[in-house]
Specification:
There is one protein chain. This protein has 439 residues and is an alpha/beta fold. Helix 1 runs parallel beside helix 6 and helix 3 packs parallel to helix 5. A hairpin with a 2-residue loop joins strand 18 and strand 19. The chain has two domains: 224 residues, UDP-n-acetylglucosamine1-carboxyvinyl-transferase, Chain (Alpha-beta prism); 208 residues, UDP-n-acetylglucosamine1-carboxyvinyl-transferase, Chain (Alpha-beta prism), CATH 3.65.10. The N and C termini lie close together (11 Å). Shikimate-3-phosphate binds next to helix 5.
Length: 439
């Protein structure tokens, strides 16, 4: 059996100060690999995230015959196969913990001339795939899941036709899956979103020269065009930055500068919510990397207050909600989160995992089907937390530990490397006492 790791984290004894760079954006890394592999010509990617999730996507394209060089110092070069150039992989494609790989690839593979089977780890094998299988079948795709609508996903390559699809849930993975399938479909694929979700696919299609129409909440493209190789510079991941934004906000006298972080408006819920709670955040040096806005983020300690998290910010902060709940635990008053039932079907049930962890360390919560109330407190204790193998739960309680009266031990942290390979190292350089123990 694979070795598991646990984190043993002590309370911070001094402010965190300095300049840091968190790894490249995970969502953009997946998409850069996919479009680079389908493009005609050589694509160079810098700032690629070499976490296990994006490496799963990388490996799957290698298995489909795409020549990919790297990653070396976060640089990748892809000799694109063209949209019809992928080869039949010799075996099932294993995608580890990565839901984004599985959902996006299901769309991309539905219109190929070969069949594929996608599998994942224990967590991924529990995640709902009907949200992509149902609309893909309307396009003519032949997709089989197990009887509960979860992986493995078997895809029998078929001819696709464009559809008009009103998405029942706000999901960038579903939208991106259908756009990728749309490249292979006859005619137009039109998608209507119920709420704004991350638009990296749309921005990157433009970078690769593919025409796409966007009007309010409707996105459409016509199948059959070429993708032209591009140079892609990937910003640092705001989802990884979020752990440090909260750490600096809750440790008195902290002052951090996070360099070159993606501040795409569909991803900055964490900044909007923290500011509403009273955080001291400044965006500096704003620029654009390949259609994606980027900035250095300066964050200083500030007294936070509890808020009702605005419903329209929930999809814009979907991956940052666990760490925002840690900010809430350290704020004055109650923070209410609703409209977040999607958290129940992430790498684990994140509402339940956060509530159980908070109970262990003495933070009061009230749990709802679609959210949670957090009762902010000046003091909470240490304890032993189960992360349920979820990287964002593990990292959230690591940051919570910086204010606990006693040590916090977090079990099952191996998956932190899916999104943030050097997380503890970066904390150590900031003077945090964190130990990683194999068991
Ligand atoms: C992602 C979309 C989000 C997010 C996930 C990455 C993406 O999922 O939670 O970590 O890269 O498209 P949903 O589309 O399910 O909300």
């Amino acid at each position: 059996m694979k070795n598991k790791v646990k984190y043993i984290v002590q309370r911070a004894i001094k402010p965190i100060k300095g300049i840091i760079i968190v790894p490249g954006d995970k969502s953009i890394s997946h998409r850069a690999l996919m479009f680079g592999s389908l493009a005609t010509g050589l694509t160079k990617i810098t700032g690629f995230l070499d976490g296990y999730d994006s490496l799963s996507t990388l490996q799957s394209f290698r298995e489909m015959g795409v020549e990919i060089y790297g990653p070396k110092q976060n640089i990748l070069c892809i000799s694109g196969a063209g949209i019809y150039g992928l080869k039949n992989p010799k075996k099932n494609i294993y995608l580890g913990n990565s839901g984004t790989s599985m959902r996006l690839l299901t769309g991309l593979l539905a219109g190929q001339k070969f069949d594929t089977k996608l599998t994942g780890d224990l967590s991924l094998n529990k995640r709902p795939m009907n949200r992509v299988a149902i609309p893909l079948r309307l396009m003519g795709a032949k997709i089989k899941t197990d009887k509960y609508g979860v992986p493995p996903v078997k895809i029998l390559g078929n001819r696709l036709t464009g559809i008009n699809y009103i998405m029942p849930i706000a999901s960038a993975q579903v939208k991106s899956c259908l756009l990728l399938a749309g490249i292979y479909a006859k005619g137009e694929t039109k998608i209507i979103e119920p709420g704004c979700t991350r638009d990296h696919t749309e921005r990157m299609l433009k970078s690769f020269g593919y025409k796409i129409k966007q009007k309010e909440n409707t996105i459409s493209l016509v199948g059959g065009s070429k993708l032209k190789a591009s140079k892609i510079k990937i910003p640092a991941d705001i989802s990884s930055a979020a752990f440090f934004l909260v750490a600096a906000s809750i440790i008195p006298n902290s002052d951090l500068l996070l360099k070159k972080v993606g501040i795409n408006p569909t991803r900055i819920g964490v900044i909007n919510i923290l500011r509403k709670m009273g955080a001291d955040i400044n965006l500096l040096n704003e620029k654009i990397y390949c259609n994606e806005p980027v900035a250095d983020i300066n964050i200083k300690y500030a007294k936070l207050k509890g808020i009702d998290i605005p419903l329209n910010q929930v999809p814009l902060a979907i991956d940052e909600l666990p760490i925002l709940l840690v900010a809430a635990a350290n704020a004055e008053g109650i923070t209410r989160l609703r409209g977040a039932s999607e958290l129940r079907v992430k790498e684990c049930d994140r509402i339940s995992a956060m509530a159980k962890g908070f109970k262990t360390i003495g933070v009061k919560t009230s749990v709802y089907e679609d959210g949670i109330d957090i009762f902010g407190t000046k003091v909470y204790k240490g304890g032993c937390i189960n992360s349920y193998g979820d990287h964002r739960i593990a990292m959230s309680f690591t940051i919570a530990a910086l204010k606990a009266t006693d040590v916090i031990v977090i079990d099952d942290c191996t998956n932190v490397s899916t999104s943030f390979p050097n997380f503890n190292l970066l904390l150590t350089t900031l003077g945090i006492n964190i130990k990683e123990v194999k068991y």
